[in-house]
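Contributing new complexes? Match this layout with pyridoxal-5'-phosphate.
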Amino acid sequence: MSIKEIDKQYVANTYARFPIELVSGKGSKLYDADGKEYIDMGTGIGVSVFGVGDEEWVRAVTNQLTKLQHTSNLYYSEPCALLAEHLCKRTGAKKVFFSNSGAEANECAIKAARKYAATNKGAEYYNIITLNNSFHGRTITTLAATGQDNFHKDFLPLTEGFLYADAGDLQGVEGLLKENKVAAIMFETVQGEGGVVPLTQEFVSGLKKLADEYNVLLIVDEVQTGNGRTGALYGYMKYGITPDIVSTAKGIGGGLPLGATMLFEKTENVYTPGDHGSTFGGNPVATAGALNILERIDDEFLSSVEKKSEYIINELSSAEGVKGITGLGLMLGIETEKDVNEVLSYCQQNGVLPIKAKNKLRLLPPLNISFEDLEKAINVIKKACGVN
Ligand SMILES: Cc1ncc(COP(=O)(O)O)c(C=O)c1O
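Output block (do not edit by hand):
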């Protein structure tokens, strides 16, 4: 049996995979089982920030791997402590909880907000306002946080206490704050799975104002937008706000599973021993790699992300068959005249691997992709979008 056939027979049927079996890569290049080369414009859904097999990251990871691969959280360990320190110094957060995925990072954020509200306002202040069209994960609670009914059906009842407003509708948010006992407002700065839709400055500033006025916490889900993806270290920084809790995952691990929940001033001391935990959370190998990744995402690097973003927008905004471009930094959604599946399939056949977000082509290339590879990929994408 081929790998595709074995996978189809034995792996749970939750993914509609493309007919490509990836076996290796280097930098922005990926290779399939037939040796075909692709330019990676998806990074495993926003994960491989420095591409495949990045030498510095591999060194950091393997150094730790040969020393000690796992400790549990019963003991101290250097990479976990240093990564937490680094994140706090870069963001102003006071404490970090480590987990293994975006959904878990959000679970920790939601628990922190509920405990903060229960302690400071009363246990009945458990509601969390999230946005329609958001995506926060696949666990029963993060599905409840996800404001898209199509993800909910068949899995009811979900965790209670989530209320939804439309992105951009400050009045709607205020209405929910007036009518309900609320712990927090939670949002992505760019709704990634929702179609790469950035929130407006006015809306984000307005949410911050409402959060202050109604004494509720602001949780920013930076699972996809974080770690340099938008051209800022975290997307919220582009909006000039300070949140109370920030969750991240994907890119921070550079390809190893890692989630982080950053607790700012108000929530610094919300957790006490026994409140939350994770066997693998803060794993020394994953955190050693993450520290290497974050140390390299400095201002100069972030400005190179912006330059690449401008290049893509310039090239594609006037291209035939492109209706519009949304997003920030190297997290871009291309609205095409043709059916997006047709565009994607042309790209795949011609050695370029973007992904989709709703009806858009989604570009999430390695942040250090060379201009040469970017140019090649954009040329194929232009041809894919054009009327051919
Ligand atoms: C904004 C956001 N939050 C949470 C998640 C869930 O992350 P994970 O799949 O690592 O659980 C995702 C995944 O796409 C995401 O984009």
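Reviewers usually confirm one structural detail per submission. For this one: The chain has two domains: 3-54+299-385, 56-296.
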